[in-house]
Specification:
The protein has helices at residues 2-18, 25-46, 57-64, 76-81, 90-93, and strands at residues 72-73, 86-87, 102-112, 115-125, 128-136, 142-149, 163-169, 175-181, 186-195, 201-203. By secondary structure, it is an alpha+beta fold. The strands form 2 sheets. Strands 1-7-8-9-10 form a 5-stranded antiparallel sheet, with no helix packed on it.
């Protein structure tokens, strides 16, 4: 941690006056991202986790995650505070096939029919996170992903203060995605997913009529 502080001070000195030239905003962002990645590695090292020493760094990271018990349901506190989520190093994020977002965090879920499950949270705007559910195979390679909660996907004709994008995961691993209008006091839409034999998220056909 002292090393991190020292690097931050050095970056500040270079940007302010001490260097031969001033850093561009892009260079400064790159420096700060590098410092953040180093800080995450130091935290993992304190937990006895060395990604570089393993031929499967994703397995090492996944096994280090806290496990979220089921059932799990949306609450404002959950998507804001992300209890139990841990920071994700850049080396791991590169496996996730996800563009955009900052400050990624993750938590694992109980295993289902051989599928290892993980929720990844990425910051889309200040303090506001989107959540993605991932399925991993036996080699800890991501097979499929499903968006549980996306802050940018609100409908234009609904006041965000009156709109809930609700999700829940049951103890039987059914994933419910519900768009609910508090103003109209009704469900706009509901989709139910399950994990199929290929460990992908499949949409369950509705048995009822609209």
């Amino acid at each position: 941690m002292r090393k991190i502080v020292g690097i931050l001070v050095l970056v500040a000195l270079i940007v302010s006056c001490g260097g031969r030239r001033q850093m561009s905003p892009e260079e400064l962002v790159h420096k700060l991202d590098s410092i953040k990645a180093l800080e995450i590695k130091e935290k993992l090292a304190l937990q006895g986790i060395d990604l570089a020493s393993s031929d499967n760094p994703f397995k090492v990271f996944f096994d280090s995650l806290s496990m979220q018990t089921l059932p799990l349901s949306y609450t404002e506190d959950y998507v804001h505070f992300l209890p139990g989520f841990q920071e994700v190093p850049a080396e791991i994020l590169s496996y996730m096939n996800l563009n955009g977002g900052e400050h990624p965090k993750a938590v694992s879920l109980p295993e289902s029919i051989g599928a290892r499950l993980m929720i990844l949270a990425v910051e889309e705007s200040a303090g506001a996170y989107s959540l993605w559910l991932y399925s991993l195979d036996n080699d800890y390679v991501p097979i499929d992903k499903l968006c549980l909660y996306a802050i940018e996907d609100k409908e234009d004709d609904i006041d965000p203060e009156e709109f809930i994008e609700y999700f829940s995961i049951t103890s039987d691993f059914e994933i419910h995605l519900i768009d609910y209008s508090k103003t109209r006091n009704e469900v706009n839409s509901e989709e139910v997913y399950y994990i199929d034999d290929s460990r992908k998220f499949a949409l369950r056909e509705s048995s009822g009529e609209n």
